[in-house]
Structures are given as C-alpha cells and as structure tokens.
Specification:
heterodimer; A: mainly beta; Neuraminidase; four-stranded antiparallel beta sheet; three-stranded antiparallel beta sheet; about 15% helix; B: alpha+beta; 12 strands; globular
Chain lengths: ~180, ~170
C-alpha cells in the first residue's frame, strides 16, 4: 500500500495543504507589504526611495494640494525631521547608503533646483546645474559620489551624470574604513 | 617695529593673491563636475530618462529610432552592457532601478496592454514577474542598493500607494 494512503484522508489533506503552503512560499519572489502610514488622512504617496541599508524610506506625499518630501524609519514609519521645508512641490528624492544625504528637486521661484540635505552636518547644499536645464528626475549613487539628473533640453529628455566627490564625503556601508558615515 | 608688525608688512602684498587662490579652490571644490565622456555617449541616443545610479552602474531608459529600451552602463569603464532577454520589441519600459552589484534590475514595463513589475537577473538573463497584491498598476520602482528590497508606486482605487517587496 502506498504510504500516503496509510495516513487516511484527513492526514492526506493536511499533507497536501502543508505541501501547497511550502510550494507557494518557495515560489514566492518576494514578501509584500505596504509602506508605513504617513499619518492621518489620505493622499498620494509617490517617488519612493530606500536608503542602501534599508532603514529609511523617502516618499513624496501629495495632500491638500502640496507635494512634500517625507522621510520615515523602516519599518516603524516614524517620521525623521528634515531641514528642507517649503519650496514645494518636492520631486524625485534619492537617499545615500545610510540616508545621510537626501537629494531632491525643489521649486525655487520659477526654477526647479536640485538640493542635497546632509543630515549628518545639518546643512543644505544647492547644486548648480547647467543654465537652461529643466531637471525632472534625480538619482544619487548610494555612496554619494555621483548624481544623475534627467533634464528636458530642446524637447528631449537627457540624462547627465555629475561627479560629486569634491562636494560630498562618501557614505559607505558600516565597517568600511573611511571617515564619515551615517547619522547617529 | 616689532617682528610681528614687520612680518605683517611683508605679507600684506601677498594677501590678495592668497584670497584669490582660496576663492578659486573653494569654487572648484563646490561644483558638481559633469562626466563629459559619459554624457556625450548618452547624447548619442534620441533621448534618455529615468536614471538609476548604484555603484559603478547607471541604468537608464533610452530611445533610439523610436524604440525605448533599458540600458545598463558601466560608468567606470564607459561601456554599455548587454541585457539579453530584457528588452522585448513589444515592451515599453516605464521605470528602471539597478542594485549596487549591477546584478538585479527592477523594471516596470507595459506589455500586451498591461503594466507589470519584473525583476531581471543579469547573470542568469532571467526575467521574473513580481505579482502586485492586492492588484494595482505599478509605475515607478526603486530597488534598494543591496537588491534585497524594492519600493514601487502602485495605483489602487484612484490613489497612489507605496508597496515594499522583500526579495530573496
């Protein structure tokens, strides 16, 4: 007699359910959950960026006609303070490895500008970009060494990459033997 | 005249020059420096958008002859890497993000009338669909630098939300 039949119909069902559960978890490509809440009330959450170590999540919260950058601990959702206030709408945030640097596009009068907040030193850097460039998207290398900017020039999207090594200290994973690092 | 005063008188004419040197150094240190060769190469395409930098890698969506595709560039070596199996002629990429190893790329693309999130593994040349649950329409994706988690904008019931997906 086959071993499966020896357990009886009840055991067979349990074995089947267990097998299915194992198979589904094994086949699953990822565990999915929603980002932590951004507080009471609803609004669009867009432009997600994770720090390299996964401890921080930056998003743009669209609520009450504003588009504001928020920075949250993972997975608690606790909000982290930012020096960057006003100059909305905010767009396309990017975080370095530890989240020391937060790059984002802001509105400065008639112009879109790229700024980087250094959360360790508590300073805000305005990045001068070529005149006439209309920045639309940013990507900051996790170590803070380079910045890619998507600009609109002559009706076409153009990505330009800039070296920031003369501007920012490196933000490398913990254990790397260099000066600098993440927030306390 | 005291020795200190004498030294000041001797150094006074040099002060403007020292100030100029300091100013020049300060300006040079505070500027983003364009990567000219790379930027020139990117201008060969009709357009490029949705940049993602990680480590030595730059992923972008570039257009050539009316067709958009995902492109991966080794910034240090200035070469473009092949992505076999990723760029299908019937797919329209919307967003891309690369990990620091240049091994994983998360891509949102439109294919056969639906919008899907996929994970590409370069060493395997494999494309795997990442299901969105509950159902929703993905738009922008950001892959964590170590490639172990991604965050993606998802539209559900008229509202944009952020889903976080852990990757094995």
């Amino acid at each position: 007699m086959a071993a499966g039949l020896a357990f009886g119909p009840r055991w067979s069902s349990l074995v089947m359910v267990s097998l299915l559960a194992l198979m589904s978890s094994g086949c699953s490509l990822g565990r999915l959950r929603q980002a932590p809440s951004a507080g009471p009330g609803s609004g669009n959450r867009v432009d997600p960026a994770l720090s390299g170590d996964g401890r921080l999540l930056a998003t743009v919260l669209e609520r009450d006609g504003r588009a504001r950058l928020i920075l949250q601990d993972q997975p608690t959702g606790n909000l982290r303070p930012l020096r960057l206030r006003g100059r909305e709408p905010h767009q396309s945030p990017a975080l370095s490895w530890s989240g020391r640097y937060v790059a984002v596009l802001v509105q400065d009068g008639e112009q879109r500008r790229a700024v980087i907040e250094d959360r360790l030193r508590g300073r805000l850097l305005r990045l001068p970009l070529p005149p006439g460039s209309g920045p639309e998207r940013l990507s900051l290398a996790p170590d803070g060494s380079r910045l890619a900017v998507q600009m609109l020039r002559q009706g076409q999207w153009r990505v330009q990459v800039f070296d920031l090594s003369g501007l920012l200290e490196r933000d490398l994973p913990a254990g790397t033997a260099v000066r600098g690092g993440g927030p306390p | 005249m005291s020795p200190a005063a004498a030294a000041c008188r001797m150094l006074a004419p040099l002060l403007p020059m020292a100030a100029l040197v300091l100013l020049a150094g300060g300006c040079g240190a505070g500027q983003p420096v364009p990567l000219v060769a790379l930027n020139r190469a990117l201008e060969q395409d009709d357009s490029s958008r949705e940049p993602s930098l990680a480590g030595r890698w730059l992923a972008v969506i570039s257009a050539r002859q009316g067709r958009e595709r995902v492109q991966l560039v080794d910034v240090d070596r200035g070469v473009q890497l092949p992505l076999p199996g990723l760029n299908r002629p019937d797919a329209q990429p919307l967003s891309v993000s690369v990990d620091v190893a240049g091994e994983r790329l998360a891509v949102v693309r439109q294919l056969q009338g639906r919008t899907e999130l996929v994970l590409y593994q370069r060493s395997l040349g494999s494309v795997r669909l990442l299901p969105i649950t509950p159902a929703g329409v993905p738009r922008r994706v950001h892959l964590r630098a170590d490639g172990r988690q991604l965050a993606v904008e998802v539209s559900r019931n008229g509202l944009w939300q952020i889903d976080l997906i852990s990757l094995p």
